[in-house]
Design a protein that fits this description.
The structure holds 2 protein chains of 2 kinds. By secondary structure, chain A is α+β, with helices and mostly antiparallel strands. The chains are: A alpha+beta, B alpha+beta.
Amino acid sequence: MTDGRIVVDGRPIELHAGDSVAVAILRAGEVPGRGGTLCLAGDCGNCLAEVDGVAYVQTCQAPARPGTAVRRHPAAGKPGLPVVDLGDVIRIPVGMDIAVRRAHAVVAVVGSDADRAGAAVLDASDGVDVMGIYPGPTIVARESGGMLHLAADEIVVATGSAELQPVCDGSNLAGILTPRAAERLEAAGVDLGLVARVGRELVRVEGDERGRVRAVVARAADGSEVATECDTVVVDLGRAPRDVLARMLRDDAVRVAGSAADEQPLPPPPTAGIVCPCMGTTVDDLETAFSKSYTNLELLKRASWAGLGPCQGGGCLPHVRAFLAAKTGVIPDPFTARPAARQITLAEAAADTHIDAFRRTPLHDEHLAAGARMDRFGGWWRPWHYGDVVGEYWAVREGVSIGDVSTLGKLIVSGPDVVEALERIYPCLVADIKVGRSRYALLLNERGHVMDDGMILRDAETRFTLTFTSGGAANAEMWIRDWVETWGLRVHVMDRTMSLAAINVTGPLAKELLGRLGLADPPRFLGHVRVDIAGVPCHVMRLSFTGETAFELHHPLDGSVALWRALMGRGRDLGIRPHGLQALFGLRLEKGHVIVGMDTELDTTPRRLGMDWAVRMVKPAFIGRAALERTAKLDDDRRWLGYSMDGQAPVEGSPIRSIESGEVVGNVTGSWASPLLGKALILGWQRRRPLADRVEIDGGEATVTPTPFYDPEGLRARA
Amino acid sequence: MPALEPVEAVRVVATPAAIDAARWVGDDVDVIRIAPDEALGLGATGIDVPGDPDAIIEPEAGFAVALLDTDALYGVRDHIDWVVPDEPGTLAQGKIAGVPARLVTGDRALLVVHVAYADELERRLGWR
């Protein structure tokens, strides 16, 4: 009597109620995997196959249901990847249809081999597949209806013991079973044919041309080898802890109980055959790795690949430990296991996980209404352009334009030791900044490498506002808090990055526009004042990234839309238009201004940027000073330079080549077809001495050109 | 569905002792102690911080809040990887649906998030 059929490699196979896929296949006289000893307990990788489109499934743990589609893995190599229509990938976000249940337990018991009173129990017999134990500790499991993420104060792994698998010549043949597997198959009515049982006296297994067992050879008491013809070999070598889950997380909150905690005798050291069926690692492979000094278990694992496969040492670990114990005289601790203990799909792994959230400024909807193409930049959604990059550029150069710079990092620092702290943190002078004035500053790490840049604005004798790049703000905040605490200085720090919005009003007509809205007495260059603009309280900072007159209006979020609209409304007759990042990057490039993170590398120093002027070595101490002092005496072959060339602006990231040799000597970090100067302007690195005056970029010849390319005296910004 | 609404507040960074002794101005002020040296007074219009002349006190419009009843909190907890404390009045901070947020426990829990993240969090919680 059958209860339906599964489909294996396109052919129907009958199943009985309660069958796993592996049992159904074995009942049909076939083999679920590539051969090797079957445990039918989920401990090894010898029955892996593709089930209902998911590869590497342990078929002994997969229930056989009518219509289940099975494709056996190829005899050699990897199973093919599923064919996915690109349209499906775009239309159906991965993981959207997998529910995640989150729960917390004081004690969670995995398995049935422990006292479970009062504990949350996760047991395969209840249909729960535990995938792994992660830091927290958190158990991730598959349960009816979706995934379970169970945080627990204590996790007890009580998964019992596994049966040792043989390692000898012929141990990869089909027809070898552990005792428990044999019992299960016999109970399921599977015909095993002629059965031979053997224990530690096993020498080898012999097979036929189909890769199936033909005979088993054992060592008799007198030392002779005795061959027994059979269809099935049942090998009883004893047990090993089933501890793969416990090996995933070394944590005091995770303990092993029951027979999973029992120290079992290791098998005899292997001398021949495949040790790790998942990865195909042989005893010879172990010998080779050991001979190359991989004598530590974790290193031997990595060098030989034993234990790297789907079962994570469920089959091979005792044998690899026995191998090393015989070689070194010391029994090594078990190696680490990695999730997942059961095959998991990407959708299950991704279920209810999220990519980083990107922030929106209060002007997001204003940008959309103005036709902006928004893009992610520095952790924020920002307007890339409003449909006319060149028009936005000219508005800045010749009229007036506004840009959303709410994303800039903003800190307030205050306290009796604040000047001392800032003098130590920044490489520029701080004490001489007068109230109402500001200074551009680099932020360096201990190695003298540029981490970020921004402005230092003095609000009062013991209070400053600091600004940072959008992408570097969070790191800069942590940096400053950490140093202030390390030094024990009396300084308060308040992060205002997401509390304040900011609008940059820039262009020759910026003063005219702001005068209409309440800025009667604009600060001079690098000055700053607090004044209401269009009724919105603003901290007005006079500085310039665009090269033109510019005022940053920092203001509370809830006034941002009103301020933006007022600026646009009162500037209409001045030809005002907003500018996006693309125009801003071109404007700054004409000025040769650096963008930390875009133009810089992890080891960029002020000298390499040509920004020694931003460092005052006369100061007795600041972060990075010692490194700068030491490296100043060394040759340095890197420089960030300006270039100009005719024709199209090269693609950012393009290689910069030597004209003479064609060798790559650097790369482009920024480029812009300047509407004003009528040529392509480039910023980029050269990393070879002597620095070339002429280089090849994108097939054209570029000339090293001093920066700023535009208004080198800075008269327009100060106007 | 609940909704995250911007809230008027006052934010202060000062010595812990000064914040302990501070007097908040406003009706029905909910004070969230973000850190030993930092507090957020939801609904506050001012604050008097004695003993710390360098205290940073700023009006704050950068946060949005939602009051969660039991059902709404249950829904939010499904998006939290960390253990939500049971004790009422406890401030917990961490990611909710991958978004940095704060949760003040109680009969009606208070979800607090930066306005810059509010739209994204509402989408991820299925509130919009």
